[in-house]
Amino acid sequence: MELPRIVHDEFLHKVDEPQEQHLEQVLHAAEVQVPVQQFKGDPKKVGELSPLLKPTPSGNHIVVIDPERVEAILDAEERDAIEADNKMNAWSIVSEESVILVKLAIPMIMAAMLEILPELALTMMIGHVNPNESTQILAAFNLSGLCQMLLIAGLLNGLSSAIDTLCSQAFGAKKMTELWLFCQAGFLMYSICAPFMLTALVCGSKILKALGQDPAIADIAGQFLLINTLLIPFGVLFSVMKSALQAQNIVFPFVVSSLIGWIVSGVIAYLLAFHTPLGYLGIAVANPLCWLVKSLMLVPVILQNELFQATWPGWKPHEAMALVPKISKLGVSSVLMVTFQMLGFSFISLLAGLLPNAGVMITANGIFTSIIVLSFMPLLGICIGGAIRIGNALGAGKARRAALIGRIVLIGSVSVACVGMVATAFIAEPYARSFTPNVEATKVAIDLIHQLLPVIPLLGFTFGIQSIFRACGKQLVAAQFNFVCMFVLGVPLGLFYALKLDAGLAGLWWGNMSGLVVFMFAGLIWLWRLRWDQLAHEAKHNTNLRFGVKAPVADAF
What we know:
The protein has about 550 residues and is mostly helical. It is globular. α6 (about 135-170) runs antiparallel to α7 (about 175-200) and α15 (about 315-350) packs antiparallel against α21 (about 505-530). The protein has two domains: about 15-80, no CATH class; about 80-540, no CATH class. The protein is built from 22 helices and three strands. The protein has helices at about 5, 20-30, 45-50, 65-85, 90-125, 135-170, 175-200, 205-210, 215-225, 230-245, 250-275, 280-285, 285-305, 305-310, 315-350, 360-395, 400-435, 440-450, 455-470, 475-500, 505-530, 530-540, and strands at about 30-35, 55, 60-65. The chain has a three-stranded antiparallel beta sheet. A hairpin with a 5-residue loop joins β2 (about 55) and β3 (about 60-65). Residues about 1-25, about 45-55 and about 545-555 have low confidence and may be disordered.
């Protein structure tokens, strides 16, 4: 199957007629005739310049598209759509959006699983490169992953969250020029943050030692981090392209790029680890190599995207830089939201390194964390898809629909998390033993999994409501909730349970769960007080930039 057909988006427009026919009708209705004398440009080159400009049969006029008329037509369509949406029965909207959300979530779940499963395979692989030192190497690998999560993933995912929000709102409001300018502004923001990420990774070993980690484990982790500096430019490029496509509800390319990327990098990692002197460092090469392949695969997807070809305004660094202050607050809030959420998990991993028998504790905690991540991967598809649909609804001014989608997302994410909890209980023992032959580490990990199963539905609710925060552009509120609940409450309570009550590693997690419970109640109160109509107005205001002419596009619904 050819690449352009792979990325064909069946979810992009919810209209009766095909997209091309709808665009043709809108453009035809917006045509005006301009006398040749008033036309700025060479009339002989009109056909070459744009298919939207054409001479009349007499040759005395040039037929052009009036952008104001296009906007008026689309605004009228939007008003009609909002009126029709308000007349619909709530259950009809729920049924319609549930079907769309499931279709949107399935490829996202596949993409999410393709992100985590190969990493799990690499972690299992690295524990068997040198069985005699598997615990130490696994502990170092987990610590390096912790640093990457805080120093790279926090920034990449946080900024990506902000750009996703603004791009989805711009798409829902049919402001395509602004969508691409948001992407360009996001690229500039990533570039500004890149030197910090590089410096932090290069100094990763020193940072871990300063935090009290075992020097031998920290040195090995530093080698992993140094190799992963190579992924930063490709991660930035991939994140920008992902935001542009995801705002249009195009998700299948992520599945294809992730699958091919991990196949290529996984094979190379195996060969380097078991058939060259690199050993476990050969496995570390797989991560940046995978990001390289994924990024290169998305480039032709963007270039072949119909919306890109029709509405790309060209590189406009001045206009994009003007957007940086406008979206920097949202970007910083998104980074804080993601980072503070990770702080609870991160401090557990760091504090595990301070417990007796640090290598075993870090390894067991890494196994437990990986199975928790695996259990809630399916609900991430629902949450991300829901955030896109809520963002599109708010951008189109459909506050009632956005509110109903939010409820669907919350109920769906908690339900899927409960199913994941049951499945986790069944696979705990064989899963833990697949990482390392160390009996003590696997025993601690299995006990931890069985004790802390309730954390999975709590995380389901957390991710569900954070997708609503994200879609509404309220990342700063989520960041404040995360900081207070996960860090201010969760970490001290975890230390109290672990040290004062002698609960050990499980006590650290009980403290985190206590923070999640507080977050759940705070989130429910925030959701109850939320004014969806005001959010729809804010979404319209956020995308009303008018740097350029807005090209026509069909309604996101």
